[in-house]
Amino acid sequence: MGGVDLSDKSLELYDPDIRSNKMWKRVLFNLLLRVISSLETAQTKLSKSIDDKSNHHAFTAGISSSNSDWTGDTLVFPVVIYSEGTGYNPSTGIFTAPSAGTYVFYVSVQSASRKYIYLDIVMNGSSKVRALAYYGGGSRVHINQTGTNLVILHLQTGDRVWVKRYKGIGYVSGDIPITTFSGFKLN
């Protein structure tokens, strides 16, 4: 039993009469078994809580077609590429924090040909970072620019994060999304 000596010889060190008391030895043995069982149960629960995926939240979503004339407010990313846990709503484009913690969000946008677009990552109505896909003009060549940005935010349960247009017009995407929005919980 893991180095615990329950022989009569070890017990007689404490009390020479204990050898004759088999019941005491049995009580002590059962008590040790219960302690070991409790420790194993606690270890299992701790391991399970560490591995519990209910607190893992991550997503990547994109857009499957271009819209060179888009001038909306919230950019909705309806194509879910990856999702673990809960939080991202592909119908609204909004991530709602299911639990408090530190999260990372990333946006990538490609401007429509010879146009520019600014997109903000917004938390509860407040812009946090801006991605800019800017075309400077002057070229007859169809040029698309890509803008990206990343932000780390501490969210409380129920906080909302989304992507909105600051200014500009249009974006490019395709069957394999080019314009995307991602987020995941660090802890």
TrEMBL record:
Keywords noted in UniProt: Secreted
InterPro entries on file: C1q_dom, Collagen/C1q_domain, Tumour_necrosis_fac-like_dom
Any one GO cellular component localisation term in the record: collagen trimer
Domain C1q: 52-187
Transmembrane segments: none
A Pfam family assignment: C1q
UniProt entry tagged with the keyword Transferase: no
Lineage top rank: taxon: Eukaryota
Predominant subcellular localization, coarse grouping: secreted
Localisation: Secreted
The protein, known as: C1q domain-containing protein
